[in-house]
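**Tokenised fold:**
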Amino acid sequence: SVYYLNQRILDNTDAIITETKKEKDFILQSYKYDENRIFILPNGVATDVQGGDPSIVKKKFGFEKECIVHVSRIDRNKNQLSVIRAMKDTDIPIVFIGGPDPNDMAYYEQCKAEATSNMFFAGWVYHDDPLLASTLAAAKVSVLPSYKETFGNSIYEGLLAGCNVVATNALSMAEWGLENDVISCNPADVDNIRECILKAYNNDINPTVIEKVKEEFSFNSIAK
């Protein structure tokens, strides 16, 4: 079975790195392994998401207001459809960065069919493409309402770029001391997603969070 094979893999490792305590606990609950050989190390976040030119994305899609951005593959877990349904009667621009799950094109087509005129699909964007930093610079809110998530790089990239962030309650932001800097939403509740996004959109940006994330989660810090 898969569990048997996973256990064999674990038996042959000297150490395991997990991104969160949640993953570490799952391994210890599900398999036999020495707790002292599991090390929690978050992903590094690239600082090149900072300092983008917001005019690039605004000119590309033709909007003026601060926007909302959702960065991830477009699939049922990442939950773009709930964001669409939550925000369809607003005039706030929403930019979806990411391409479809090739195994579930129907979900992508449904998202596009239900999207309203204030919603834009940028497709896959390379990390060093100026469009990514531009969208984050133009965004007041970065949202990631996944049903399941292990770390969520776009959460930290959003914070680093100076966005307010709405993230799934499947992640414990308290693990990294960010519980007061991120608004947690229920991915299964469209009304709650809407409430959280509007709250984040109307809140002031806390500039101290940017340095906090840079100090703790930049590639340089994680490498050390």
Notes: The two ends are 38 Å apart (CA to CA). Residues 73 and 134 are 19 Å apart (CA to CA). The first strand starts at residue 16 and ends at 18. The mean pLDDT is 95.
